[in-house]
Structure to design on (445 residues):
């Protein structure tokens, strides 16, 4: 039923808005009791929605104090002012680029697929599942075909059993938002060209996308688009999820089409991210797009991450926390140590933490650093910590796939999907991943 469709509802909206406002430095003490009085986790009725929206409006309208600890603008001019200076561009190898682009596409698809069955899980149940399949540390697709897992309530979601575990793959990768968006923005570039605008993005969403294919921040923004609330207001109006991971998973194609030019890739990503996100939600997409652009000309993961950080405000929480991961790595701390520290700062099971841009970006960076440029190891280390596993697997996969190239990706990942992908983007129902790479190549200057 519509009222039970979790992506259509404002899921945990009050709790999320409260945490989001606190993150922004607002004083929310006056709202704690008000939220308890409403006492609604997932509202359904018109009257309940009215109460929730009234409170969200009140919280969103509380001003950020002038002495807030972080300077985190959401407009491009201010973001540019807080970037590090641009560095000299590195030329890409034209003969190898197609294989790298193809590898990045395969990486996004297979990284998403390996993480999807355990999306939103924490570390312990993931370890239990993987060990039952003799797959810990994770190095391949997950399996649910083990009698010891028969009574595990996490495996009772039949859709996941049918579509996402390795024994149920049918020679094609199932549809998912993490691959829908890459396909969508390839289509945007084909339709509008490299000079596409934010308005073009909105038009594409409304004309070739389905509102039931988006969730949280994107769902809120889609409602705003339909109500003629356009960017940048669409990103902040009644959108408690404005710093969640949704934009961070959309930036890949902008890195693909700007190999070796991380700043241009980040600017492309901004044109999209500002539709649905603010602050670190925007920076996450710019960061990923820049890393992917740089991964076309470098295989040094630390350098790739540092390049991604250059394009976003140095005064942001995202820079603060990714810098911590780099520091721990330089100090020789273990991968497990890094994951423990991420969970200390962003404890589960708070949904706001599990789906937030920053802790998931930290996990991606840990996977890239501690994956030692090994495709399977990198994907496994992006999934093993939990949180938004399909998103993190897809993003890490995009980068390691670009570095590795399609020719060097193990067949264990490619054979089960037979080079095919299903999407929800109009005109792209079933596509060949190799064709997507060829279409991408035609966009590149």
């Amino acid at each position: 039923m519509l009222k039970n469709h979790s992506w259509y509802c404002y899921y945990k909206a009050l709790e999320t808005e409260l945490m989001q406002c606190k993150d922004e430095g607002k004083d929310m003490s006056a709202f704690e009791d008000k939220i308890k009085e409403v006492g609604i986790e997932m509202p359904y009725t018109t009257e309940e929605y009215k109460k929730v929206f009234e409170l969200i409006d009140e919280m969103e309208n509380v001003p950020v104090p002038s002495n807030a600890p972080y300077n985190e603008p959401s407009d491009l001019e201010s973001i540019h002012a807080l970037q590090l200076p641009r560095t000299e561009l590195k030329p890409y190898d034209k003969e190898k680029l197609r294989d790298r682009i193809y590898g990045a596409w395969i990486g996004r698809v297979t990284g998403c697929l390996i993480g999807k069955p355990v999306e939103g899980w924490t570390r312990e149940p993931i370890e239990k599942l993987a060990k039952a399949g003799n797959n810990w540390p994770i190095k391949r697709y997950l399996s649910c075909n083990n009698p010891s897992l028969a009574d595990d309530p996490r495996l009772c979601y039949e859709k996941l059993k049918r579509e996402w575990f390795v024994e149920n793959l049918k020679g094609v990768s199932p549809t998912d938002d993490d691959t829908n968006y890459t396909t969508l923005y390839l289509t945007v570039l084909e339709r509008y060209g490299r000079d596409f605008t934010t308005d073009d993005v909105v038009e594409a969403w409304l004309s070739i996308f389905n509102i039931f294919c988006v969730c949280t921040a994107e769902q809120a923004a889609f409602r705003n688009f339909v109500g003629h609330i356009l960017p940048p207001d669409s990103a902040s109006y009644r959108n408690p999820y404005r710093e969640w991971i949704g934009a961070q998973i959309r930036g890949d194609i902008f890195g693909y089409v700007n190999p070796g030019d991380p700043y241009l890739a980040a600017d492309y990503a901004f044109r999209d991210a500002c539709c649905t996100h603010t602050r670190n939600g925007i920076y996450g997409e710019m960061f990923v797009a820049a890393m992917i652009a740089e991964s076309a000309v470098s295989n040094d993961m630390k350098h790739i991450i540092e390049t991604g950080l250059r394009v976003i405000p140095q005064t942001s929480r995202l820079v603060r926390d990714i810098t911590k991961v780099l520091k721990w790595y330089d100090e020789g701390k273990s991968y497990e140590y890094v994951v423990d520290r991420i969970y200390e700062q962003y404890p589960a099971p708070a949904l706001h933490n599990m789906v937030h841009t920053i802790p998931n970006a930290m996990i991606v960076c840990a996977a890239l650093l501690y994956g030692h440029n090994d495709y399977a190891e990198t994907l496994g280390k992006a999934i093993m910590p939990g949180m938004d596993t399909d998103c993190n697997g897809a993003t890490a996969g995009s980068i390691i796939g670009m570095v590795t190239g399609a020719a060097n990706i193990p067949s264990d990942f490619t054979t089960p999907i037979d080079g095919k992908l299903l999407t929800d983007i109009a005109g792209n129902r079933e596509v060949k991943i190799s064709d997507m790479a060829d279409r991408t190549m035609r966009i590149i200057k």
